[in-house]
Amino acid sequence: MKAGERGPSLLEDFILREKITHFDHERIPERIVHARGSGAHGTFKLNKSLAKYTKAKFLAEEGKETPVFVRFSTVAGSAGSTDLARDVRGFAVKFYTEEGNYDLVGNNIPVFFIQDAIKFPDLIHAVKPEPDNHIPQAASAHDTFWDFISLMPESMHMIMWAMSDRAIPRSLRMMEGFGVHTFKFVNEEGKMHFVKFHFKPKLGVHSVAWDEATRISGKDPDFHRRDLWEAIENGAFPEWDFGVQIIPEEDEHKFDFDLLDPTKLIPEEEVPVELVGTLTLNRNPDNFFAETEQIAFHPGHLVPGIDFSNDPLLQGRLFSYTDTQLSRLGSPNFHEIPINRSINTVHNNQRDGHMRQQIVKGKVSYEPNSIGGGCPFQAMMKDGGFATQEERIDAKKIRARSKSFVDHYSQAKLFYNSQSAPEQKHIQNALIFELSKVTIPAIRERVVGQLAFINKDLADKVAKKVGVQVTKLEQPNGSIPADADPKTLQSEEREPNTKSSEALSMKNTVKDSIQSRIIGFIMEEGVHAAEVNALQSKLEEKGAVVQVIAGSLSPVTADDGTRYTPKHSLTSTASVCFDALYIAGGKNRLKTCWMKKTDREPFFSSMKLTNTARPSISEAEPMIF
User: Fold this and answer.
1) Count of CB atoms within 10 A of residue 190's CB?
2) Across residues 177-195, what is the average pLDDT?
């Protein structure tokens, strides 16, 4: 609304004001960590009852299905960063159970960098872009991160995982999920067991190589998000086996590590993973912001039958997650946002606050009361109320860490020793790449010194490439409280009871399936339709997805008049974005697709790489890569 057709806009134009005002307020603070995420709806089906161990109803009735929402994420990068950063991936599951929402907020790596939540701000400050120049984005290859790591030997187990190909998965559908912490199961009789949670992908655990990751980031930084979305849209629903490692309470101290230490895992050779359920993702969100962005996970969202352990990292998360949701979503009523609502109505005395959505009737908002007939009242245990497991504690208040937490290298050795030769080589190369970005020689030297406690050969190879010598660190632990004696807090060198674990190597994962793999068909005019159709039929019969690539997005006409519509042009994609390539017509066709070898190099060079993400098809004519 203006004063005349060419005059000034009028302040009374409420339509303009409302539209602009809403636009100006459309963004909310992104998550401090795990900002870059993708999500989907699905179901969890229990295949084997766990009623012997827990009274949680969704884990007790065999065949029971529970709706879920799962969010995957990177950790360090901002919401607009690439999917293919070298990083741990978040794997968070919200179970909408009849007893309330249960959140299992985990990662694709079973351990973490630190043992105590008080160091979490330091870790994240170190890995985030450096505060003076805000460089680099979504990357750990810089001074502050490795300075922190070089002084924190408790991080070395996690570093082995982060430098492995586990940190650059082929697909969100092809990575494991872990609860990280030790939790407790409590059954109807009140008996407690410790438990670790696992999700194992039906497609197997697969990765890309680092060179592939950097190329994919250039061609399609949304690679993982797009892959998950398209798989679900195409009906190739991602599935994971849900498993548990259960430890009787009386066996808490039988291991050569502390169950409460989040930098440790339980080797499957010592406690096998019992597969009891199936997680299936079968529906994409209707709106990314309303669902994937606004969903609020919290490790303190429990149901009866599941409880916390005294893991000091977990204990700190219980505060942090409530606090960060208040900051990010702006209200203590974030649980009333549709994606966060429980299936059953909640009755309590919480009232008002920003963006209150529930309209509560009646006079009373306190307990006890007589006006409202005593309602709402606390549910008794026999009626499904939550009760924390009783635990006797005879201890003094102290700021100290258990002596059982000083073993920082044994499981780093276990992980590295469990890797195949190519996997070990990739870890070496990743460390060399990362440390080559570190500008301060003393930091590189300290990191190499930490590596020497894990594997001398690894330390020697990395040191040679990053220009430092391997020197023995007299006091490797730099995380010392103000009044503590540094000598009493130094890391102990131990050998793990389990020397090697097959479950830790991707070499031993599922490799016999082409289900949902993306096969690129490179075509040009006059392509042989009979060959194309025959191969496409065989691939799709096995569950593969065929996508046509051509010189342009114009339809390609085959020798029999069939027209194929390309999904990609040669300039918009690269070989690394596919699991295999088929050059329609055979080797001679290459000469007409690309006139010179140098034109083909960027597209084909990485196909010489071999990793677990590449299924074996055929090398016979027509050409398949």
Assistant:
1) 11
2) 97
Statement: residue 395 has pLDDT above 50? yes
Rounded mean pLDDT of 76-95? Answer: 98
Mean of pLDDT values over 151-155: 97
SS (H, E, C) 23-84: HHCCCCCCCCCCCCEEEEEEEEEECCCCCCCCCCHHHCCCCCEEEEEEEEEECCCCCCCCCC
Would residue 107 show up in a list of annotated catalytic residues for this protein?
yes
The residues that bridge with 195 in the sheet, in sequence order, are: 183, 246
Q: Which of the residue ranges 126-130, 362-366, 391-395 would you say has the lowest mean pLDDT?
A: 391-395
Mean pLDDT value of segment 99-123:
98
Give residue-wise pLDDT tens across range 222-255: 999 999 999 999 999 999 999 999 999 999 999 9
183-186 and 177-178: which strand pairing? unpaired
> Which one-letter amino acid corresponds to residue 148?
F
Rg (alpha carbons) of the chain, rounded to whole number:
27
**How many CA atoms lie within 13 Å of 592's alpha carbon, on the beta-carbon side?**
14
Pairing verdict, β 100-107 and 89-97: antiparallel
- 3-class DSSP state of 89: strand
Q: Are the C-beta atoms of 463 and 469 separated by less than 8 Å?
A: yes
Q: Find the DSSP H helices in 72-193.
A: 120-127, 143-150, 156-162
Q: Is 187 one of the catalytic residues? A: no
Cis preceding linkage at 201, omega within 30? no
Catalytic residue, chosen from 101, 107, 108, 455, is 107
Q: Give the full edge-to-edge strand order of the sheet including 580-583.
A: 568-569, 545-550, 518-522, 580-583, 623-624
What is the pLDDT, as a whole number, of residue 359?
Answer: 87
d(C-alpha 526, C-alpha 504), whole Å: 48
pLDDT at 610 over 70: no
* Amino acid letter, 234: N
C-alpha distances out from residue 562 to 294, 522, 557, Å: 46, 15, 6
Give the Cα separation of 420 and 426 in Å (integer). Answer: 10
The catalytically annotated residue of 34, 198, 301, 408 is: 34
What share of residues in the chain are helix, strand, coil (percent, to 5)? 30, 15, 50
